[in-house]
Amino acid sequence: MQLSGKRVLVTGASQGIGAEAAFRFAAHGAHVHLVARSAELLDQQVKRIIEFGGSATAHVADLADAVQIRALAEEVSAPDVLVNNAGVGRWLFLDDTSADELQTMTSVPYLAALLLTREYLGAMRSRGSGWIVNVNSPVSRLPIPGCVGYQSSRWALRGLTASLRLDLRGTGVGISEVVPGKVSSEYFNNNPGAEERIPAIARMIPTVTPQRCAKAIVDAVEKERAEHLFPWQLKAFEISGRLFPGLTSYLTWKTGTHR
Ligand SMILES: NC(=O)c1ccc[n+]([C@@H]2O[C@H](COP(=O)([O-])OP(=O)(O)OC[C@H]3O[C@@H](n4cnc5c(N)ncnc54)[C@H](OP(=O)(O)O)[C@@H]3O)[C@@H](O)[C@H]2O)c1
């Protein structure tokens, strides 16, 4: 899809990957709707885009709340491109995770992506055009120990992408899944305890920047790519997981967190 003059909605756009993706879409001539909870951070990102000569608006919403998702869909009509990027979640053993925290990490990203996509899907299908991007985590391919709640939500997001892709065939609406390795955003500060749980074997995969993720997201829309895992070392690890599932899962377990 060509982006100039299009409208793009990016969730989790107050910082990190989402903020950089919003900036890059705006640099390609799109109007960007930036969504997150922090009004102040959103305003800073909108200001940055406008000072650059782009076009953007901020929309404050807690996407863990279905009522606020409905209100957002009333406020912003169906965009040409929807980027489901907002995500949270500490990496914890299941019985160390409170029920409230499990609900939150399931709500965002998974339920938020499901509900917001549902809000916009009818209009996209009627127009016969549109693109959805789901930003996912490597643990949606390669499970690691001590991370059940977060991981389940990521597998659900992967399932949402795969199943919706089938229903979208022939409609003119498409969907991509973009899966970066570890990213140098504030994610691990915002979700303490997660970084330490990356298994030693996965630390061989180089960290990528939010800017590189933004490029991958925009490329996925422009080139209408179904899936993009990067860097290549993550892709190699994923292929190894498919070819040698027992060995890959043993090494991940062996070099990961234990009680
Ligand atoms: N960092 C990594 O290593 C990595 C790797 C692969 C995939 N990812 C995924 O990429 C996505 C973006 O991650 P990031 O690294 O940019 O993380 P981040 O810096 O922590 O940013 C997360 C974004 O999500 C928003 N958000 C969180 N909860 C929300 C809610 N309830 N409602 C609305 N917005 C909410 C946050 O904004 P507010 O706090 O202002 O609401 C923020 O803008 C996440 O889904 C993450 O899991 C990250």
From TrEMBL:
It holds the Pfam family adh_short. InterPro entries: NAD(P)-bd_dom_sf, SDR_fam. The keyword Oxidoreductase applies. Keywords: Oxidoreductase. It comes from Lentzea alba. Belongs to the short-chain dehydrogenases/reductases (SDR) family. Coiled coil: none annotated. It comes from the Bacteria. Transmembrane segments: none annotated. GO terms for cellular component: membrane. The lineage of its organism: Bacteria, Bacillati, Actinomycetota, Actinomycetes, Pseudonocardiales. The keyword Oxidoreductase applies. This is SDR family NAD(P)-dependent oxidoreductase. One of its GO terms (molecular function) is oxidoreductase activity.
